[in-house]
Amino acid sequence: MKKLVAEFIGTLWLVLGGCGSAVLAAAYPELGIGFVGVAIAFGLTVLTMVYAIGHISGCHLNPAVSIGLWAGGRFDGKELIPYIIAQVLGGIAGAGILYMIASGKPGFELGGFAANGFGEHSPGGYGMLSALVCEVVMTFMFLLIILGATHSKAPAGFAGIAIGLGLTLIHLISIPVTNTSVNPARSSSQALFVGDWAMDQLWLFWLAPILGAILAGLAYKFMSPEKG
């Protein structure tokens, strides 16, 4: 239960910090943080949580990460479903807090609410195939970074920095394509509030990250299996 509470809180923070920066601060007139600021915010949420809860739950914060670690032989399959449920609920809670904050502004309109999308709902108008390839590849690389940084032969104490910077880089590359998911819990939380098109397109932001994570888990297990 302690692990699940940690995953809930960590995923809440990821959504509130990352999506919150996009909704509240990205386009703020003249002083907005833009794509770069949002990318840094997402990276910082993971970096801070690695050191806050990593020793409790492993700080997955992401169903794709849990599945990728399982595929790589680093996570017990019996814990997958509870972890995923905790992550999705944490993401929804984070989105709920963000909605309560954002809706306090006069003239508030929900808009895209930082939801992930493709086609006309992609920030750059990228189509479904582009979104699918982008999310698979970005999640694949994210899991390689996680698996490498947390390997028993990796330098101790630096995993959070590598993982946080890795997620920042992924957002710098892919925000224009899909608003960057690589995390089904993050995608689900925003889509539930937007509804309509966001729910219709949500399948891609479960399928692609999970596929990329499994491929990365298998690839890293082949390249550098964990001994003991």
Question: What is the gist of this entry?
Answer:
This protein is mostly helical and 228 residues long. The chain has helices at 2-25, 34-57, 63-71, 80-102, 128-149, 159-178, 184-194, 196-200, 204-223.
Notes on the structure:
With 228 residues, the chain is an all-alpha fold. The protein has one domain: Glycerol uptake facilitator protein (Up-down Bundle), CATH 1.20.1080. It is built from 9 helices and no strands. The longest helix has 24 residues, at 2-25. The mean pLDDT is 94.
Write the layout of secondary structure elements.
Elements: H1 2-25, H2 34-57, H3 63-71, H4 80-102, H5 128-149, H6 159-178, H7 184-194, H8 196-200, H9 204-223
Helix pairs in contact: 1-2, 1-4, 1-7, 2-6, 3-4, 3-5, 3-9, 4-7, 5-6, 5-9, 7-9
